[in-house]
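Suppose you are handed a protein chain with no further information: no name, no annotation, nothing but its sequence. What can you learn? This example shows the usual starting point.
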Amino acid sequence: MDFSRYGAPSKEWLEFVVENPAAAQDGLSNNDHATQLRATVNSARGTASKNMMSQSGLIDTVDIQTLPIPSRGNHYIPLRRYSSSDTQESRRGLVYFHGGGFLFGSEETDDYLCATMANTLGVIVLSVIYRHTPDWQHPSQHEDAHDALAYIKANALTLGIDEGVGVLGISAGAGLAAATTLRDLDIPEDRFIRGVVLSIPWLIHVDNYPFELFAEPRFSSQQQCRDAPVIPWARLKMFSDLLHADKSDPQLNVALAPNESLRSFPRTAILVAGMDPLRDDGLVLATKLQALGVPTSVSVFPGLPHGFRRWASLPATRSFDSRMLECIRWTLGLDECPKEDFEDWYVYGDE
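A reasonable first move is to predict its three-dimensional structure. Written in structure tokens, the prediction is:
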């Protein structure tokens, strides 16, 4: 296995950092002060989301409601519900798990993305605000994800959802989405998840990396992209260490799950960034699912770092966001879903 052809910095990225040199340093510092870093990142993301909500007009066209829902351990977590204001009829549901290495994220940080999806796709978006490190260690995040899905399933009609849900996760949230999907498969006659979108997913514990799957260890994304911006090794290792988890825990290694467990996976779309140490987490899983005959769509954005869509002026950002919406349409089987040959490898820049 060798996907290293996607890892060299793209011309688009190199030109972008000439004009925006700070982007090349993103994630390279402050990796030993988790609580302070979380406060800084959450504040910046929350402010950016609030501004975009106002500028886009979504603040007037999307209804947002936060519901406290029970999770194990006698506590409650926020479930944030987004729906277009123009109709109250039941719709397809999309359960969303935010990214942030299990460290970042709050009720407001993903408002703009979730409101955009609700408004553009006409679905009910339910964002699960799971517990974060360092206050809560593994498996708290997975417990919240599983309990939230159980609540949504039991209260689907009240929440305005019909015909099951799709699941979308970004980065660490994609790990939650994948693990929650596996758990949903345990009861074949009562499956609730209809499709899955895993965006720049973290699907393998960093200390349990399957180097033996690659032509050479240096071709793996963990080694090839070790010093890439946004989540260089120091940042990624910090995220992982804060979990205090067993490196072989199946919930943190969905890409390495046995074929028998993956065989019944629902329709799945996976999007990866080429210059991302997590690139091969997604591509290992995609390769396995396709070999098992699971309907699988793969989208690769070569030469770009993890989470590059934070930079709105990058041309690839608009393409990535558009592709992610298409993936949701495809996995949920919405009326405006893409062409039949969507089950293929899309590579940005090859159009």
